[in-house]
Amino acid sequence: MTSTLQPVRRVCAAALALMIALTGLSITPSVARAEGVAPPLDAGSSYTVSVDVHDAGNPSEPSMSAGMLAKNAEIDVDGSGRARITLHFVPAQIMGLDVHASDLGVYEEGSQSNFIEGVSFKLGEDNSAICQFVLPYVPNDGLYRVEMRSDIMNRDALLYVKWPTLKKTGGLGDTLAGLVESAKKYSANDYTEDSFGKLKAAIADADAVLANPDSTPEQFQASIDAVNNAVQGLNAAAKSPFEAGRTYYVDVTDQDPTGSRALDLEARFDVDEAGTIKATLRFNPYSDFLGAYQVSAATLLDREGEVAANNAIEQHDNGGATWTFDLPYFASTGLYKAKVTATSASPDKIHTLAFDWSTIRTTADFRKLAAAIEKASGLAAPAYTASSFAVLSEALARAKDVAADTSHSQTTVNDALAALTEAMDKLSIAENAGSGNTVNLGISGFNAPFSDESAPGKPWAGSRVYFGKDDQGKPISWRVLQTSKDGVLLNSEHTVTGQAWNTDMSIPASELFWNTATLRTYLNDEWFNKTFDALSKEAVKTTEVKSLSLADASKEVAPATQDKVFALSIQDYRNKAYGFVSNESRAAKEISLLTRTTDESASFMTMVLIVLPDGDLESGFNTMMPYTPNLGVQPGITLDPSKVLLTTPASAAAPSGIQKPLATEDNAWKLTLINDDWKFDASCPRVDGEKISVEYAANASPSGRMSRSAALDQDDRVVSALVVRGSDWRTGTPVGYGTVGKVSGESGSVSFELPADFNKETDKLYLFAERIGEGAESNIATMPVEVSVPDAEEPPAPEPNDPSTPGGDAPGNSNASDKPVPSNPGNAGTSGSSPAPSGGQGQAAGSTDAAKVVAAKTDSRAAAQAIPKTGDAVFPAAAFAGIAGAAAALSLIAVRAYRRKLES
After folding, report:
1. 421: CB partners within 8 A, 6+ apart
2. Which residue ranges does the record annotate as region Disordered (predicted)?
3. Element containing residue 693 per DSSP (H, E)
4. Domain boundaries, given as residue ranges, for the chain
């Protein structure tokens, strides 16, 4: 067991070390401070001394912040004995990040909350800095508790003044003389008139102090400060390249590591006729392990540290912001200081903006578009589904057209880039191709995830389904991990952020498991209620969720829970049958994902297993303290298959009229959920020609289960038809589906055509009322009602005595059955014939035999129509008339004979 747990303990230790490094958390008990004795500091003297930064929790060890402090410092003592120390800070790299000091706080003696006053901190354009303050006390061990402030974060540390290295120099006069000698080497031609003028004035004052034998230490120190400040304030002379009345675009970066990810690459400069340069910069919303980074305030500073004119910021609903200001001066280096306030960062933090003047341009920036075109052009069609690659091909062609014309506006370029980027983002790898149809009964369209681990680097592939809505009201996409008749295991692709695994500090470490996690409470209460409406909630099954041991997955370490929503376990994320075959298949990109699995073997604190942003599970940094804020979780739920009537492609609109299902490679599905509170009935089906007409009654129950967004309103309902072959609507094969009419009121009728291949012997017709969800939002339907399709209706046969029937036995009609048939003068040339008058056939109705007579009559008419007409060349007109008359007479004789047989 020891060998099994050692790697896990190492993982925990590494994770804890990272947290300590980032937060300044002190776990290690204090040890003895550095030894030494503070030497006397003579009034009016100057010294050099070595300095360092040690860890606040372990004074004998250097701090991670030590790289920002130069190792040599100066101490100048004035006439009254006050010792002023001068520290020098330089940019450094800490844990791979570029870091620079932004300020220093010095605690009062014995205090860990109150700072001394009078600390001077001057930050240069290259992010170096000079810090000066009067030593508040002189401890023997040389340790001063300070707060190191940087562009990354603030943390407590110990400034270590190494008294044994203290060396006396020539005094304040020598220090000032050396500064003046160096300052006189600067050339007026290289700097702005204003900044160089201040340096000249400081040098002149210093020369006067040096020349006066009665100068006091305070005067020497004031001159030293003035020369240092003037040197720091020098600004290189440069001429603005911007012309009045024009617009320019320039690349800009934020040298703050987090700010660099939020600031848009391109800055815009609008120059008015007076030459005033208005800059426009854009911040984008960004999230990392510390949470959302959203800029709320930003002010550009001029050379004197004052706010630039017309400084303003406009925040956007998506968390981004637009920042505008008048450029106060033109810095040849392109470096400007700004104060930026953002979430998950210190307020008014000093940032350095770097404008790259070599990128000045007057046309739209095509570089991002060109890079996207190059990337898209290198993608191979066989690697993706045909439909998604077709969208990409169209967007790529448009992007190439835009890139070929440099006169396009930046808006047009950005639109083409956005469309191409979206098409690439939505590319579906070939393994994502589905095996369903354009309509599927229940969950039959879902297929198992792609689980071949021999294909490295593949993102997750398989069926997806849209269900519920996020905070912006957009349908949430879920991965289908596993299907069965009892339930469908779904895993959200939407990351829930802003929650720690546990925030209840009263829970003992030994009891920190999924059953006590505050994240579990949040997901099953607040998040569940805002994500799903009432009907959708009923479609989510309660799942028994087990807390399995990290060391032995066959053992449970805590009581199982009954949850609607849950975090996946580390075992789930390792399950290849769920489609998690690679880091890419698990990656959430910008944020680590919490699991419900804990490392119960940790000796000092229960740790939570996480999935790193790149999807890695085995790096050694896959544990985190349960109280760590602002991580993410992609929840799991179990969908109840019995609540699903149909699935259709999420990208397709509902078909109009009954359409035959077609095979599709689409594998992102839209649900049609059953609401059994809604009532629908269909009756009185009639077949009229090629159409069937059905009367319906549709009433929604007032039970209140549905939210307003899913209510079956009178104005948004349709009647839909479903044709199923071989069995019923749950187990058969769908052969037709579509909307066939709009529901108007609580009752009405619809008329529609059945499929040409509809077979009463094998097919069943179902009707139901349906609310079609917008986009990928779920449809809501009543329980389907089977409609019995009747035989096609024959036109009713006329009664023989019906006066309205031509040739019937009405008074005055010459073809009554008990009267002799007169000869037709028009047929006198046909000897012995007894032709019937025009239209003179009687007709029996009301029985199968009568129907046969109608059929015979119809056949005789068809035969007559086949005989050539009078104008044809085959027969003379007279001969044709005789044949037609004889045929009609024979038909009438047959009808009368059959009637007498029936009467007898």
Report:
1. 372
2. 790-859
3. strand 691-700
4. 31-169, 175-232, 247-361, 367-427, 825-903
Spatial distance between the Cα atoms of 187 and 234, rounded to a whole number of angstroms: 11
Question: What are the DSSP calls for 229-245, one per residue?
Answer: HHHHT--B-----PPTT
Inter-helix orientation angle 367-377/386-403, to 10°: 140
What pLDDT, on a 0 to 100 scale, did the predictor assign at position 798? 53
According to DSSP, the β-strands at 286-288 and 143-150 are unpaired
Best CA proximity match to 646, nearest among 672, 678, 670: 672
Question: pLDDT tens digits, residue range 599-623?
Answer: 877 666 788 999 999 999 987 788 8
Across the strands, what pairs with 300? 338
Residue corresponding to tokens 């029985």: 847
Q: Which residues contact 869 (CB under 8 A, 6 or more apart)?
A: 880
How far, in Å, CA of 462 to CA of 433, rounded?
8
Domain 247-361 has CATH 2.60.40.1850: yes
The answer to whether 31-169 and 247-361 have equal CATH topology is: yes
Q: Residue 177 carries which side chain, given as an amino acid letter?
A: A
Chunked mean pLDDT (size 10), the chain, 904 residues = 42 42 38 59 88 90 89 88 93 84 94 93 87 94 93 88 88 85 83 86 93 85 91 81 92 85 90 94 76 84 82 89 92 88 81 93 90 95 89 97 91 93 89 90 94 79 96 95 95 93 88 94 97 96 94 90 97 95 90 91 78 88 86 96 97 95 94 93 90 89 44 70 96 97 91 94 96 95 95 59 44 39 36 36 35 37 38 41 45 44 43
Of 208, 240, 234, 236, give the one whose Cα is nearest residue 223.
208
Amino acid letter for position 48: T
Check whether domain 31-169 has CATH 1.10.357.10, yes or no: no
Q: What is the pLDDT of residue 58?
A: 86
Question: What are the distances in angstroms from CA 287 to CA 201, 262, 281?
Answer: 48, 9, 19
| 769-771-772-774 Cα dihedral, nearest 10 degrees | 180
Can you read off the two tokens belonging to residue 790? 């009747």
Question: Half-sphere exposure of residue 682, counting CA atoms within 13 Å on the CB side?
Answer: 25
* Beta strands at 678-688 and 691-700: parallel, antiparallel or unpaired: antiparallel
State both tokens at 475.
Answer: 């349908």
Three-state secondary structure readout of 470-495: CCCCCEEEEEEEEEECCEEEEEECCC
Q: Looking at this protein, which amino acid is placed at residue 100?
A: H
Compute the distance between CA of residue 538 and CA of residue 524 in angstroms, rounded to an integer.
Answer: 14
